[in-house]
Amino acid sequence: MKTCRLLSLLGATLLASPAGLAATNSLPNIVFIMADDLGWADVAFHGGNAPTPHLDRLAREGLELRAHYVAPVCSPTRAGLMTGRVWSRFGVVNPQAERALPWDTVTLPRLLKTRGYDTAMTGKWHLGSLPEHGPQRFGFDHSHGSLGGGVTPYSHKYKKGKYTDTWHRNGKLIEETGYVTDLIAREAVQWIEGRGAAPFFLYVPLTAVHLPIKEPDEWVARVPAAITGEVARHYAACVMHLDDAVGQIVSALERTGKRANTLLVFTSDNGGSTAENNDRAYPDDQCPSGPLPGNNRPWRGKKGDLYDGGTRVPTIVSWPGRARPGKVETPVQITDWVPTFAALTGYRPERELKWDGTSLLPLLSTHAPLPERPLYAVAPGWRARSLRHGDWKLIAFGDGAARKYELYHLAADPAEQTNLAVTEPDRLGRLQTL
Fold first, then answer.
1. CA torsion 74→119→166→73, rounded to 10°?
2. Looking at the DSSP assignment, which residues form a beta bridge with residue 172?
3. What is the pLDDT of residues 291-312, one digit of tens each?
4. Which of 110, 68, 112 has its CA nearest to residue 334?
5. Neighbour-count burial of 252, counting CB atoms closer than 10 A to its CB (0-12 exposed, 13-18 middle, 19+ buried)
6. 214: Cβ–Cβ under 8 A, 6 or more apart, which residues?
């Protein structure tokens, strides 16, 4: 509870101070956009081959968190964002259809509602795939999109089986015509345009660029000619379409006069994927066949891995005049956003919530480095665990006598190529204990 009170006091101080991050007469709006399976180098501002002008502008004019870590797959990252706690505390380590969180969890939208916020989500939930386990049961006033995971682009269906029918609005399954990214963006824009004076929290977990991908012809036609191959061109078009959706949301904030008092975060739920695009587990939407070209360079690994390619994702914070522009390399994690928004809004928990994250307000406002702390992660199926502490990263594979360790010094070896577990026994021991 002491930690929570300190965070709240910090947030209240910043809100009250003319020089503080939130020097404003009202609580800030919060828009949190999460791409799905977007790799580090899938965006143009990291050298990607598909143009992303809206994201490029946000990165250029805003703050880029260059060491923002998430879980290696989808549901765990979303659990971390909603709770401020590492996903494995809830037994969530895989993409899952079952309800992920206890009913009484103090989620991000629930805590913001106590501060007078309107709350909405449009996109992919993936923390409970039945309507009775949906976003409105965990603090959202309005919800729309996929209760399950990624969906087919035109029919909006999840994998064949019990949870195939997943497209919903406010707890009721619906049929809706249109391309999935367009529908999610439209819902977000309309919700922004309908806001009154109350502060709002809008969560937009896009399904792009999750498989199966098949973009509209007009988007594929815009892809640079240098990108060849059917899946590669549809993938690039999907990245560009995602970027356009972000642009639509920013334009809606500007058009309604809410941009200046809105803190916007853009990130991805995990690294890029190289899986087969036309996954036969989904109903057929005539999607092209071939491996996805998810690009995580220069990091090692991909979606599902605890190497940085699976967990270090492009992340931008944009709040004109309040979040200091630039680039910071301080390691942060998806679990940090709950305590950050709690501090920013002056939220005071009624009980100790045992957050694993910490408030990022000093980092956002002045780029002040955070104290060194362990960032812990768990891979799907508990097959591996990792810990980053400062510039060092330990990955433990397996359990018991069969456990194997890899130790990397990220400052000297950011691509995680040289395992130092044997040559640095003292360091290995300290990180094992931690």
1. 0
2. 169
3. 999 999 999 999 999 999 999 9
4. 68
5. buried
6. 153, 154, 234, 285, 286, 287, 288
